[in-house]
Design goal:
By secondary structure, this protein is an alpha+beta fold. The chain is built from four helices and four strands; from the N terminus they run E-H-H-H-E-E-E-H. The mean pLDDT is 79.
Length: 107
């Protein structure tokens, strides 16, 4: 299968905001309000500055379909607390979340 994780860059900003503001995604988030561009910009900047988190774009067959988050990272000790999330945001792919999780996490 052709899948990979890649770093998030500025070209992903709008896509991620659209994913986060979709009805399907918002109903599963900690907060369910529409995220303003300013809120999103703040979050986007925070995840790039916070050394205890690492977010990646999940690509499948060359298409960006979701976001993977690794949190509670301790780079000093080269470890993380296995707190990870896989969010399949692209429509049509949510049903394959379990399959994608197995590929990604080798469950």
């Amino acid at each position: 299968m052709d899948y990979k994780l890649r770093s998030i860059d500025d070209s992903d900003k709008e896509r991620i905001l659209n994913w986060r503001n979709s009805d399907r995604v918002r109903q599963n988030m900690y907060t369910d309000h529409l995220i303003t561009p300013e809120e999103h910009e703040s979050w986007f900047n925070k995840i790039h500055q916070d050394k205890s988190v690492d977010y990646k774009i999940f690509e499948y067959e060359g298409r960006s379909i979701g976001l993977v988050g690794f949190t509670q990272i301790n780079k000093m000790h080269n470890q993380h607390e296995d707190v990870t999330s896989l969010a399949i945001f692209e429509d049509g792919w949510a049903a394959k979340r379990a399959e994608m999780s197995k590929l990604l996490f080798k469950a």
